[in-house]
Specification:
This protein has helices at residues 18-25, 77-83, 127-133, 172-178, and strands at residues 3-10, 13-15, 33-36, 43-52, 57-65, 72-74, 89-90, 102-104, 109-111, 116-119, 122-125, 140-144, 152-160, 167-171, 185-189. The strands form two sheets. Strands 2, 3, 4, 5, 6, 7, 8, 9 and 10 form a nine-stranded mixed β-sheet that branches. It is an alpha/beta fold and 191 residues long.
Amino acid sequence: MSFKLPIALSNRHIHLSQEDLNILFGENYELTRTKDLSQPGQFACDEKVDIVGSKGTIKGVRVLGPIRSNTQVEISISDAFKLGVKPVVRNSGDIDGTPGVKIVGPKGEIDLENGTIVAARHIHMHTSDGKKFGVKDGDIVKVKTEGMRSIVFENVLVRVKDNFALEMHVDIEEGNAAGVKNGELVELIKE
């Protein structure tokens, strides 16, 4: 049986806590939703910040909403080299022991002690998809792409929740290396 699902490429972005949003954009600031993302309740914002490391700066990094409990910067390995931070691949939310950066907004700046990650590849699934695919939250699977640059992604975390929509997420470098585009179908391989 073949288990197909769409893939999406994630570019650098930042999730902010309310406290950090207030420092960067002003007291009691609210994010400006510009576009809904594929995961229910997630959205791209009009707001952008600059990320500053010991070796360089990346300007205009998009803020994604909604507000989170902890600020998290998601970059690619190439971005980490440009900034001068150690690239640490982690699951979203697992920020202990990760590098920090300076974040500069229009009203202020923060020195983030940790929270800069290269997001680990993962799959979002609704609970009904988990049953259909025969996987549960926390499982690790492989995913095969198609085409001239077909590859098998190893160590793909499965996340299953009632409020998730079916989609695999890889960073832009992984997606480009595999020659895939947003929305293309890939195949989940269970071990």
